[in-house]
Amino acid sequence: MVLAFASFREILGKEREMRLLESATVKDLLEELAAARPAFKEAAFDDTGALRDYVLLMVNRKRIDPTRDLSRPLQDGDELAIFPPLAGG
Amino acid sequence: MVLAFASFREILGKEREMRLLESATVKDLLEELAAARPAFKEAAFDDTGALRDYVLLMVNRKRIDPTRDLSRPLQDGDELAIFPPLAGG
Amino acid sequence: MIEITEKEISLDEMIKRARSRDAGAMVTFLGTVRDDGIERMEVEAFREAAQAELEAIREEAMSRFHLIEAEVVHRTGSLAVGESILAIVCSAAHRDEAFSGCRYIIEELKKRAPLWKKELGENGGCWVGQT
Amino acid sequence: MIEITEKEISLDEMIKRARSRDAGAMVTFLGTVRDDGIERMEVEAFREAAQAELEAIREEAMSRFHLIEAEVVHRTGSLAVGESILAIVCSAAHRDEAFSGCRYIIEELKKRAPLWKKELGENGGCWVGQT
Residues of C with CB below 8 A from B9's CB? Predict the structure, then answer.
């Protein structure tokens, strides 16, 4: 399940179920989204194909570090949340 | 006019008019009060006859410094306020 | 607005008065009667002098911290444990200013405003802060 | 209590819940929609994650600053200029603790809670804080 918030919700919709190959990683999933939605590719990746600094990610409601954890494999039932910088209050 | 607050009000009452000799000072007035009310003398002066540290004074609603201004002459219509340390809020 | 009053404090009214389209932050301080083994607290003011001092403190806070509004209400008379003794409400564009302004007013009020508290317990009363 | 809600915030209710015989000080923070040339603000939450994060922040503030009570309510949905976005109420024995606790919660909330604001003006909308 992919959850998107704020500007990413406007591009991706709030929730979408995705089917993944076994052993797919966070990076695989983000690239699949980028391939399906050019506006998401534009918003989330820079010209070199690297994830933009301000994109924040949670797997199962825990923040992950995009510089280290993109190769993390996802399992059936995992929830990936994608959102821009926080601005509550 | 003498105004007293908090513990000094309990000794002196809230307000009292005092008649003073011409050229009477703040110190003269305090000593007159002490002579009239032993409880005030006890509360406001130490054994050596000096004003206790914690006694605060205002003349016409402006704080005066007891180490410097006790010799200040009072005039007809002046208002002297006597009170203990502040404790609002 | 500055007020020294025998009546219960309405924080709601104060917040309504301090609200503004230009404010992004409002900080409120409430001082309440704490149960230190006491039954009631009596608050006494040198009303005219306290009003003038609080107005001066308010002006200082407004200009130092660019407040949009600042309200102070201090109660006098006999208060039960849990009741509000005073309320301060500061509004500002940003939260740093609102926090600093509110803090400034309570600290200066405690140092400068001629107001006194007497704690009333089983064994009589005791003026707070007096040696 | 922590709450993320579409409904108007009742500061009064929060203060009632945070009042205590052991409290001498209550500090309140209200974040309000400031008129920066906008008409409305839309607030969005990742509700479950925000609730959990705010509960963690509340626990940290309670134990670090010896708070007696801490209440946080954050609104979501469409808000007009002047309306309250969030309210924090902290009670403590002394004012230092109440001020520090309240400040801690708002600073951590801004850094850590998955909540977003979109400013809506004449020329459409703009997510706050996004580059």
Answer: 44
Q: Which two tokens stand for residue C99?
A: 């926090």
Q: What is the pLDDT of residues D35-61, one digit of tens each?
A: 999 999 999 999 999 999 999 999 999
Q: Do D127 and A87 touch (CB under 8 A)?
A: yes
pLDDT of residue C130: 60
pLDDT per residue as tens digits for the range C2-28: 999 999 999 999 999 999 999 999 999
| DSSP tag of C29 | E
Q: Compute the distance between CA of residue D126 and CA of residue B76 in angstroms, rounded to an integer.
A: 69
**Among candidate residues C31, A54, C115, the one with its CA nearest the CA of residue D24:** C31
Q: B56-82, pLDDT tens digit by residue?
A: 999 999 999 998 999 999 998 999 999
For chain A, domain boundaries: 2-83
Q: What is the model's pTM?
A: 0.94
Q: Which of A67-71, C102-106, D23-27, D71-75 has the lowest average pLDDT?
A: A67-71
Complex-level ipTM: 0.92
pLDDT digits (tens, 9 = 90+) for B4-29: 999 999 999 998 888 888 889 999 99
Cβ-based neighbours of D120, under 8 Å, separated by 6 or more: D38, D39, D40, D41, D42, D78
Of A54, A85, A89, the CB nearest to D109: A89
Which residue among A6, A83, A88 sits closest to D109, beta carbon to beta carbon?
Answer: A88
Domain that holds residue D102: 2-127
Instruction: Give the CATH number for residue C99.
Output: 3.90.1170.40
Q: What is the C-alpha to C-alpha distance for residues B18 and C9, in angstroms, rounded to an integer?
A: 37
Alpha carbons D92 and D53: distance in angstroms, whole number: 22
Assess contact for C74 and C3: CB atoms under 8 A.
Answer: yes
How many structural domains comprise chain D? 1
- Answer yes or no: do C31 and D95 touch at CB < 8 A: yes
Q: Is A47 left (phi over 0), alpha (psi -120 to 50) or beta?
A: alpha
Q: Chain B within 8 Å of C118 (Cβ-Cβ)?
A: yes
Sequence-ordered alpha helix ranges (H) in chain B? 7-12, 26-36, 38-44
Q: Closest residue of C to B14, CA-based?
A: C46
- CATH architecture classification, A2-83: Roll (3.10)
